[in-house]
From TrEMBL:
A Pfam family of this chain: Amidohydro_1
Annotated keywords: Hydrolase
UniProt xrefs under InterPro entries: Amidohydro-rel, Metal-dep_hydrolase_composite, Metal_Hydrolase, MTA/SAH_deaminase
Origin superkingdom: Bacteria
Domain Amidohydrolase-related: 55-426
Hydrolase listed as a keyword: yes
Protein name: Amidohydrolase
Cross-referenced SUPFAM superfamilies: Composite domain of metallo-dependent hydrolases, Metallo-dependent hydrolases
Length: 461
């Protein structure tokens, strides 16, 4: 197993339980894990990285995304801010139904590259785009992409089962049966789910959303996930509750609770339309919330009061969300946006979360949300996932005295200096280390044009 010694780092921000920051210190990586942090550690046979002027942070953990949407972005013809969520879904799904597995592969590479370049080392993706042309290959293609780039990947096997004629917004080409969905979830778990420490791949059973699925899809998802010991995820509380009430006579969270889709092995995306009592129920059950700031701002939705939720005991993590409602896979940008959004609540409640609090939401909270107690902070025996920021350039002058709050407070949202995942350098000096970026970018553009731009010329103006 290879060793890496980061020598004489200006600051190592651990995000551990004591919120330790080590100054002018070393960090030793031994294989997949952190071995030691301290001053004057022996280099032995390790590769030495000069940490002079560098701040070291735990790798961020993204807990909600839709990689396939990376090729359906920067389109003012489908303008998310001017549509309700349900209207936007109805319009954009007409494009999604044409996506094939090549789009899945190259759009996933694109999103993963963006994440790695901006300090994200573990990514959860909610992959619900299964069409007649993708077949059952999307997660397999994503695993292929993740292995190429070296990112730690948790695949949410999503799906939609309720046809449009029965009240969903799903085109026929994107509808699966519950049996199809469950059988493929089981296949993926058996093939890719690795529950061992420092695992690089896991599977989350993730039916897309209650409004677009049959009840039995969620019931069978709970059965399978609990039997296999994997986590559960869905969209919840993003504008669908009235539709669920009309269909079932109750709000979405009550519906999920009734069928068991709630608990400390479950996390929901968004959750901005929930009531005080519902947030209390989420806290009591240990259910997580993935907060996605970009779509909330773009859609003009209520801004989660993260400090209040944390005081209630809710586990909140950070997600980029899909590019069609964000247009970016930059987790540092999401961190900055989330921090600034919390200022909305400051005067009302006499205080808000700090920039460092938000960093912990994006790191250790994300790891807990995914059940990864081996990740999320920099300390011995934790997985060797981290990113380095070089603070010696002029734009950092006057701000380096507080490394804990620097990122979100100052707005460090550009590419980092280095990203390390599982003890391997995957991004350094502006380049991904294991792939030919220019070649992949060109191939991806050709696929996007062939499969999507040529079929929907009025959207790509």
């Amino acid at each position: 197993m290879s060793k890496i010694l980061i020598k004489n780092a200006k600051a190592i921000v651990t995000c551990n339980a004591k919120d330790d920051v080590f100054y002018d210190s070393d960090l030793l990586i031994d294989g997949a894990k952190i071995s030691a942090i301290g001053k004057n550690l022996p280099a032995e046979d390790a590769e030495v990285i000069d940490g002079t002027g560098k701040f070291v942070y735990p790798g961020m953990v993204n807990t909600h995304h839709h990689f396939f949407q990376t090729f359906v972005r920067n389109l003012i013809t489908i303008d998310y801010p001017h549509l309700t969520v349900m209207d936007w879904i109805d319009k954009i799904y007409r494009i999604f139904q044409n996506i094939d597995d090549q789009i899945i592969y190259y759009s996933s590479l694109t999103a993963m590259a963006d994440l790695l370049k901006h300090g994200c080392t573990t990514a959860f993706d909610h992959q619900y785009c299964y069409t007649t042309t993708t077949g059952k290959r999307p997660v397999d293609r994503q695993m292929e992409a993740a292995a190429q780039l070296g990112i730690r990947y948790h695949a949410g096997r999503g799906g939609n089962t309720l046809p449009r004629e029965e009240g969903s917004s799903i085109p026929a080409a994107m509808v699966e049966t519950t049996d199809e969905f469950i059988r493929d979830c089981e296949r993926l778990i058996d093939q890719y789910h690795d529950a061992s420490p420092y695992s690089m791949s896991q599977i989350v059973v993730s039916p897309c959303q209650p409004i677009n699925c049959y009840r039995d899809t969620f019931v069978e998802s709970v059965k399978l996930a609990r039997d296999k010991g994997v986590r559960l995820h869905t969209h919840l509380g993003e504008g669908e509750s009235e539709g669920i009430r009309e269909r079932y006579g109750m709000r979405t969270l009550d519906w999920c609770e009734k069928i068991g889709f709630i608990g400390d092995d479950v996390f929901y995306a968004h959750a901005w339309e929930l009531t005080q009592a519902e947030y209390e129920k989420i806290a009591k059950t240990g259910t997580g919330i993935s907060h996605c700031p970009a779509p909330a701002v773009l859609g003009g939705f209520p801004i989660l009061d993260i400090k209040k939720l944390q005081e209630m005991g809710v586990l909140v993590s950070l997600g980029c969300d899909g590019s069609a409602t964000n247009d970016s896979s930059n987790e540092l940008d999401a961190l900055r946006m989330a921090y600034l959004m919390q200022a909305y609540h400051t005067k009302e409640r006499g205080g808000s979360v700090s920039a460092y609090d938000m960093l912990k939401v994006a790191t250790i909270n994300g790891a807990k949300t995914l059940g990864r107690m081996d990740l999320g902070s920099l300390e011995p025996e934790k997985g060797a996932d981290m990113f380095l920021v070089d603070t010696r350039s002029l734009e950092f002058t006057g701000a380096v005295h507080d490394p804990k709050n620097l990122l979100a407070r100052v707005g460090v949202t550009g590419p980092v200096w280095m990203t390390i995942v599982n003890g391997k350098i995957v991004y350094a000096d502006g380049h991904l280390t294991g792939v030919d970026e220019e070649k992949l970018a060109q191939e991806g553009e050709e696929v996007c044009t062939k499969v999507l731009r040529n079929q929907f010329p009025n959207y790509w103006k």
